[in-house]
Write a structure and sequence with these properties.
14 strands, seven-stranded mixed sheet, Metallo-beta-lactamase, Chain A, alpha/beta, binds zinc ion
């Protein structure tokens, strides 16, 4: 059985673990190393069972615990060439870190088939990931994206579990306390995905055969789990999802280890 486990997810930090049969990959490490290790141990996964770390991009809410973690667990780090160069140039990884540039057409990492796709975000070269497990299951994840491009849609389509950003509610963002430039940045095509766009994307993926979804990277200021869930549920029901269907949709917690998703 394949497992996806979100240790924490949101504008204040992101880290998730996925795997099966005792082998795991980590995606991002955006709080402290201590928070990541505590989360893994709480979920019964030893950091020693990790085989590598996939990085989406260099923003601090995705990498701030990475350097300390790598000193204790010197695992290979995977990402786009520009992201890895940024991490090295800004002392965000130890000088001895094993940085592995993602291959164009995907690659095998510790028994997982890993392919990345570009996401539209104000970072050096942000990526989403599609990971094939040995059991044949597939997980696809896109976080930190201002719009859903054809490439993102292709990267997510047909996966057994789709993890997608639902960052903000447009009304909350508009009325909220953020300065104008930050509101513009978040709502731009290179910012973050709003609940409505996330919901419509899930609906399209449902029609294309996906059956399990998780919403990630909710904003603390500009969203609530209820608003994100409501928008996505409405879209999924309109696309033909059965009301109350088990395990269809989950919102990942900002600060706590979310229940493991088996798929
Ligand atoms: Zn970002
Ligand atoms: Zn982020």
């Amino acid at each position: 059985m394949a497992t996806f486990l979100s240790l924490y997810s949101g504008s204040s930090g992101n880290c998730a673990v996925m795997g099966e049969n005792g082998r795991y990959l980590c995606v991002d490490m955006g709080k402290s190393c201590r928070a990541a290790v505590r989360g893994m141990e709480e979920a019964g996964i030893s950091p020693d069972a990790l085989e590598g770390i996939l990085i989406t991009h260099e923003h601090s809410d995705h990498v701030s615990g990475l350097k300390v973690f790598l000193k204790r667990w010197p695992l290979p780090v995977y990402g786009s060439e520009a992201t890895l160069a940024y991490l090295a140039d800004h002392d965000m990884v130890p000088p001895t870190a094993q940085l592995c540039v993602l291959q164009q057409n995907g690659q095998e990492i510790a028994g997982f088939e890993v392919r990345s796709f570009h996401t539209s975000h104000d970072a050096a070269d942000c990526r989403g990931y599609r990971v094939g497990f040995g059991s044949g299951r597939t997980l696809a994840m896109a976080t930190d994206l201002g719009q859903v491009t054809d490439e993102v849609m292709e990267g997510l389509s047909g996966a057994d579990l789709v993890v997608l950003e639902a960052n903000y509610d447009p009304v909350r963002l508009k009325m909220g306390p953020y300065p104008y430039y930050l509101k513009s940045r978040i709502a731009s095509p290179r910012g973050h995905l709003c609940n409505r766009d996330a919901g419509e994307t899930l609906a399209a993926l449902l029609r294309a055969g996906c059956e399990r979804f998780a919403l990630c990277h909710l904003s603390q200021e500009n969203n609530t789990p209820q608003l994100a869930l409501q928008a996505a549920t409405e879209s999924l029901l309109a696309a033909g999802a059965l009301p109350g269907s088990d395990g269809l949709l989950q919102v990942l917690s900002r600060s706590k280890v979310s229940p493991a998703i088996q798929f």
